[in-house]
Amino acid sequence: MNAQQTVRRWLPSRLDTGAAVAGLLMAIALFPLRFFASQIYIKTIPLVLGSACILYLIASVRDDSTVNGLPTLSRDVLRLLPILVVVSSAAMVVIAVEHGERSVLFFDVAGVAGTLLLAQIAFSGKKSFNRTQILLQIVLLAAVLRLSALYVTPGLIGIDIWTHITQLAGNIKAAGTLEAIADNKHYTSPLYHLLVVATSLLADVPLRLALYLSLGLAMPVAILVVFTIANLLVEPRWAALATALFSFGDYVIEWGIHIIPTSMGLILFLGVLYWLVRVMRTDYGLREFGLLVLFTTAVILTHQVSSFIMLVLLGAGLAAYLVLKLSIFSRSPLDPDVFRVRNPLNIAGLLAFDAGFITFLWSFTPYNGNSFLVTVLSYLQETLASSAGVLNLAGPSGGSAGAAAASQGPTLIETVATYVDTIGFLLLLFGTFVGCLYVVNRQRAQQSVFTLLAASAIMLVFVLGLPMFGIRNFIPQRWFAFLYAPLALLTAIGLRHLAIELDRRTVAVVVLIFVLVFPSVMVMSSNGTIDNPVFENQEAQLSYTEAEIDAAYTIGEMTGSPDGDNLRPDQVVFTDHPYQTLFMRTGSYPADTARINDSEPVTHDITVYRQEQTEAATYFINSNGIGEIRNIPQQRICRSNQAVIYSNSAVEMCVTSPATDA
């Protein structure tokens, strides 16, 4: 008996049910962690995992007497729902224009429209399902969600985008050469900036409008790539469900309005995933594999973090190949299923090529006075040596008010905001767990779905596992939108299985939770509403009014936009975060986050006050050196012993009077 036969002999006869039992035991073992840490995922993931495993085990014990499948809506209702989605989308546009922002009412209507869309997908019969009609609604709703924010918001949305457009792309356009950013890490990954500059020159429009005409329009349309991937795995109805779930993803929405190289990297990543799944599932030729290589190269030339995430995906594909070559899994050609039989594809050569190309580029990419490769490795080494530790948790948004509030416990609004931010992701995790259990069945095992499983598992380690040990060097916030692609695909596979195997009433409840809850919580999540957070006292708004933008540029003109190296520390402008980043990233004036205490005015010589500091969530540095949300009255920022040297309807710049210093 050889080694493979020995391994197979000791494995359970059904790996899927064995894995479900193991998952249930793991959920039970992890449950007590909630008593040692208050982190939301530690409290909820064991419950999600346990629920998924229990439902899968129930579905595995099939009773032919039960009525399976999802209930269907009547033809009249199915004819009405698309009209309601279109009307809701139009109402969203009107609300955004009338209010001048994506208001709470806007998000309420968006959640209702999303529910109507998911209801059409989930509760339509085979004959009544109209693929083209559904996909058009998905793109329409996705476009309205994103483009409304871009249209009504002055300037740009987000923090990093100001650097990419006003400085990097602006310098390239002004100089007419890439050498204008030779000292920046994007010098070796310039596709985003070159696309924006080229669009600006060809269309003869400003850089901001060029960005929106290129990537801004591409982001909602690129969602259809998820459908093309899913359609290689499941029937069109379930492929449409995966597409809709992905389109509502909060981080996917974020990169559709905060359009930076991560956004372009996400589009190209979807292209990589499509061609990877296609070459694994079909009889491909040189053209298909060449396009796969082309897309992986484009990712590398666009964004460093996206490149690393792509390597994880390719590594997952190679891991799936190695596992399937063990012959632990076998599939009868007579077994009917959506997965077609194909020999595993060895992508070690592609992985080696991309890893080598990345190492080569990063070895001379400038970053913080050294090469990008050396710098990130030194940062990782420093983290491992100084701050890594078990349950050394950090919130998903970095520094926050959480540390300050920990002693008195979260308020009701804080608790609601936290669960709104996480429920959508937890629903995807639930569907993913079910989908993973389904594909590990020996008779269903294929490299394509195993790649999705392995990629999801590895990426979850980076976004949830490593931060539990204080390791956030891989910028986990940038991973979620990429992670949503395999999660949405596996969720569609998992829900499809439950719809086939579970009692109709049980599966209807599960799917109805997705239909009613998922769209609303995702569109209201803080990550998808950075332009105007629903919980305005919990999250900082990463967009600015015309007056706030004009103030930053005018102050730069007044002062001649001095270089920070030529100023003393007391000559720096101090204001809130994120407003201080607007001064820095537009090159207007060196700025930093103001330091505050519990009640006394700030002591900085040059300060900038804006109404947002009093009325909504803005960050300041507390006495412990930690950023926290504070509402600060004007007199604590612009003090009586200061002179107001600039003022408009929303912003004041104050300077300590020389007479006072004397």
How would you characterize this protein structure?
The protein has 662 residues and is mainly α. It is 60% helix and 5% strand. The chain has helices spanning 3-10, 15-30, 40-60, 75-99, 104-122, 131-152, 160-175, 191-203, 207-222, 224-230, 236-247, 250-257, 261-281, 286-300, 304-324, 348-362, 372-386, 402-405, 412-439, 447-465, 480-501, 504-524, 546-559, 579-585, 612-615, 634-637, 658-661; strands at residues 366-367, 370-371, 573-575, 591-593, 606-610, 618-621, 627-630, 642-647, 651-656. A three-stranded antiparallel β-sheet has the order 5-9-8. A hairpin with a 2-residue loop joins strand 1 and strand 2 (370-371). The longest helix has 28 residues, at 412-439. It starts with a helix and ends with a helix. 45% of the residues are buried.
Given as residue ranges, the uncertain stretches (5+ residues, pLDDT < 50) are 6-11, 334-341, 394-407
The number of distinct helices, counting runs of at least 4 residues, comes to 27
Strand order of the largest sheet: 5-9-8
Structural class: mainly alpha
Strand count, sense and closure of the main sheet? 3 strands, antiparallel
The end-to-end distance, rounded to whole angstroms, is 93 Å
What share of the residues does DSSP label as strand, in percent? 5-15%
The number of strands is: 9
Described by its quaternary structure, the protein is single chain
**Helical residues, percent:** 55-70%
Protein name: DUF2206 domain-containing protein
Transmembrane segments: 15-33, 40-59, 79-97, 104-122, 134-152, 209-233, 253-277, 284-301, 307-324, 345-364, 422-440, 452-471, 477-495, 507-525
Keywords: Membrane, Transmembrane, Transmembrane helix
